[in-house]
Amino acid sequence: MEKKPRRPHLAMEPRAALQNRATLLARLQTVQLLKMSEREIAELIRDAENDPIFERLIYPKEGKWKVVRFQPNPRTHLASSFYELNEEVLPQGARPEAASVIAESREALGIIHRMGQSLFETHFLRVEKELDRAGVAAELNLTPEEVQKVRDFMLAYSVQSEFFDPSVKSPGSHGQRVVRLARISLDDAGEPVFEFGSPLLARGRYDIHYEHLQNLLRNGQLQPKDQRHLKSFIRRLEFINWRQNTLYRILDFVCHGQRTFLATQDASKKVPITQRQLAKRLAVAPSTVNRAIQGRSLVLPWGEEVLLEDLFCSRKKLCVTVLENLEEEDPQFDRKTDMDLQEQIRVRLGFPVPRRTVNSYRRVLAVQHLEQSPKPQPSPVDPR
User: For the whole model, what pTM was predicted?
Assistant: First the structure.
């Protein structure tokens, strides 16, 4: 039988190899972004916004340069305590370092208090109007230097924001610091509302006007070096956007899923949400979700602070929690059959659980009791 000629092995073209390498590098960079703390991200954003080109893109002298504005995420706002900052009255729980931050920014705080919350958010949290710094200053009856002082304060405050609303959760088993991301409340529709302590989280993402960007790159007014720098700078903003968007989508998805629990404070009202399930929805690896939630906490509507990872739970965890509640409520719990408990779990959780699974969870509960029971102390040895 005649053998078919083998197809020659084609080496990967240099261009394809570069594309693959660039894709891999981008993935590594995004994973690294999620591992960074809020303070490190704030420093990254501060460095980006101190680049002279950012001034041209957000406070342009010509409308065609208005490439960037800020786009807050739905149901988010800046904590009201930000507008009440002063040296005499610090937010409850604030660290001593907060006083020095305020002392150094006394003038910027005075400017914010004079302009009021509405104008501050219009011109500094959203930057909606196509005005250069001088135009913003004229509209607010400020000097351009005062506008810059407010911008500088926002960036400096965001780097130090954990000083003003520190987490009360103790570090994890590996000594990991816990950073409080937001306080949660529920709106009239029962949806979660996020109150961020950091202006950088409250203002959301960079809204990039790509049509204006393409016009700038095509009109021939930029030198090749300036074009490369502009493209590179926009990629930096896109990476920051990806990180901030991923974090917000995780918060929103989990809190939306657990909104009944957030409204009732009843742990049995939680729904099964796993990191793997969320990773599939976000089209990222489960390890990416895990990195994003580690060391971050939320304050629930009734004032309790919990780790973000505590809002995730499996069906097993929910069923065992219900069994624990039933055991506390019913003195005859041990005499109940698996079928009896199966029906009670279905009523409380709203989904059926196989009888054999109920029996397995009962054994899990029994093991937990054994582990929690005090161990017998060895009897003293008779010296005789």
Answer: 0.78
